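Dear V.,

Thank you for sending over the compound details. I've combined the ligand you provided, NAP, with the protein sequence from our construct and run the structure prediction for the complex. I'm sharing the raw inputs here so there's no ambiguity about protonation or stereochemistry in the SMILES, which I know was a concern on your side last time.
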Amino acid sequence: MRTALVTGASSGIGAELAKRLDSLGFRVILTARRTDRLEALAAELKNPAAVIAADLSKREECLRLYEETKEMNVSVLVNNAGFGIIGDFDSTDLDRELSLIDVNCTAVHILTKLFLRDFIARDRGYILNVGSSAGLMPGGPLMAAYYASKAYVVSLTRGIAEELHARGSRVGISVLCPGPVETEFNEVADCHFAIRGISADYCAEYALKGLFGRKTVIVPDAGMKIAALGAKLAPAKAVTAIAGKMQSKKLED
Ligand SMILES: NC(=O)c1ccc[n+]([C@@H]2O[C@H](COP(=O)([O-])OP(=O)(O)OC[C@H]3O[C@@H](n4cnc5c(N)ncnc54)[C@H](OP(=O)(O)O)[C@@H]3O)[C@@H](O)[C@H]2O)c1
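Below is the predicted structure of the protein with NAP bound, written out as structure tokens.
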């Protein structure tokens, strides 16, 4: 049976991606730390799903997750787990920020590399890395580490996509770059959106169309497409200042 591994499947975009992949006929391997939520989601799905608890801030847990799933015929990997931290860089907690880099960058890096090797050997498979529109911006005051982590995901994915293209590989890799999406992201980051977000369900549907349509950078909302284009054309300093204004609104009462 075609199998998809979805990280961060206990909530938000990851849970919706898992549901959509299930409805497309995939067996889904659900992973996150909160297994009660994963079990509840698994019970909702049409196809038999697997649940694996893993804390992806730990390198050995990323490697264990790969070891436990590598023989399960995974042909779609979704690196979705991630979180944000808001605040001036000198005031945010160092350990939590290092954990953000571990989950948002290192785990994505490890799982992409290990599964990509298998996919290339079979000349089939898709990897969807969940980045953010933040990763398309030159910088993000008040969320500096988060923006930097997502820029890493965007750059990594674009580089690999070109390597695959150059060798005529059938393996696909994409990066999803949404603006605000209504999930638990803000609760975790302890802020609120400056603008209304799209639904996680719509985001997931759009993402999978882009992934299977072999689009490298997937931006699911029109407003963010315009913002991303503006960020390419306008001076980086001006774009960074605007990003900072947007972030500061997230902290207003
Ligand atoms: N919501 C937005 O506006 C937005 C916009 C652009 C990009 N994104 C990106 O979308 C992705 C999903 O976020 P979301 O918006 O759906 O937020 P969410 O509802 O808070 O979901 C985050 C998911 O990541 C998992 N996760 C966090 N830390 C983890 C860890 N150490 N180990 C394993 N799993 C971990 C969580 O699972 P557990 O807590 O159960 O471990 C949860 O399933 C993230 O990469 C985020 O950066 C979100």
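A first observation: The mean pLDDT is 96.

Warm regards,
I. M.
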